[in-house]
Specification:
The protein has 306 residues and is of the alpha+beta class. 25% of the residues lie in helices and 30% in strands. The chain is built from 7 helices and 14 strands. A hairpin with a 7-residue loop joins β7 (158-164) and β8. The relative contact order is 0.09.
Length: 306
């Protein structure tokens, strides 16, 4: 079809759509966001839209951008927006960049933005605007959270122990793993114990937690390792062949006396032994669900009973 034929076809469709009110017809070269003659997106839109927070920051989701905006157009729009945000006293800008809009990261980096974090199909960049003081922007998550389950048979004084298939050295430890986003500590312990050993159990309390920096398996984060006391509901062992080399119920006395037992495992076994001998109310950190100051939300408070 020739250019004139395409033009006539377009004009005919617009007449059908707008009828006699032809003054409202858009020009074929207009921006997708307005009816101004032959203007590009950043000529029509002078500032990126975003959600403001109580710290005078603004978060912009780049999924709002049309798919055909060029890197140059976005760069100009970002520069204009930054100038206006600085004048209005904004302290920081956060850009949420869907993976399909990653071409705009170069323009953002040229304006001083740096990565904060990336997850799934998006990344987040930020820029501190207040030149009068150092950046107060928080880093992304500083810790990973691991949870272990000390599953205790109180009548026989035995604990469920496993050996990790992926360790070079075969040492006995409590089953456990990393907590999922939105998962309570007790839920993580119950899930990990079942996945690794096939034993169903119920959360009773937190016995202790360990904090360690420079952990070799924490992806550059610090590590918090929470040890929960669990009561077994089932007892048959069905270890996961992909993760677990060996799995067994082991007497507390044997764990404590074994020279090969890791110091952390020995200390926690002594805590469990103390609970059996003198009452778990002396060692347990219990859990209480409470209302949050944020409307409609709840949280778990872990504390010594009183």
């Amino acid at each position: 079809m020739s250019h004139l034929s395409r033009r006539a076809s377009w004009l005919f469709r617009q007449i059908l759509k707008h009828g006699k009110n032809l003054r409202n017809m858009p020009h074929p070269g207009t921006c997708c966001k307005c009816n101004y003659h032959r203007q590009t997106y950043n000529q029509c839109v002078k500032q990126l839209e975003g959600a403001e927070d109580r710290y005078r920051g603004i978060t912009v989701d780049l999924s709002q951008l049309p798919s055909n905006i060029t890197e140059q157009e976005f760069g100009g729009l970002l520069q204009d927006s930054l100038a206006q945000w600085r004048v209005s006293g904004k302290q920081a800008v956060w850009l949420r960049v869907p993976i399909m809009h990653s071409k705009h990261i170069v323009a953002a980096a040229s304006s001083g933005f740096s990565f904060h974090h990336a997850e799934g199909n998006y990344s987040v960049l930020n820029l501190w605007l207040d030149s009068s003081r150092e950046s107060a922007l928080p880093r992304f998550a500083t810790h990973q959270v691991g949870v272990a389950g000390l599953v205790l048979k109180e009548d026989t004084r035995e604990v469920l122990m496993v050996q990790d298939r992926h360790r070079h050295r075969a040492i006995w430890k409590f089953p456990g793993g990393l907590s999922d986003l939105g998962e309570d500590i007790g839920e993580t312990a119950e899930r990990e114990v079942f996945e690794e050993t096939g034993v169903k159990s119920e959360f009773q309390s937190v016995l202790a937690f360990r904090q360690q920096h420079d952990h070799p398996s924490a992806f550059g984060r610090s590590d918090i390792y929470v040890i929960c006391r669990l009561t077994p509901v089932t007892f048959d062992l069905k270890p996961c062949s992909q993760e677990i080399r060996a799995c067994q119920w082991m007497p507390l006395d044997k764990i404590i006396a074994d020279d090969e037992t890791a110091p952390l495992i020995r200390m926690l076994s002594k805590l469990a032994q103390h609970g059996l001998d003198d009452g778990f109310e002396k060692v347990d950190i219990t859990c209480q669900e409470m209302k949050s100051v944020y409307k409609g939300l709840l949280f778990k408070l872990y504390h010594r009973p009183f």
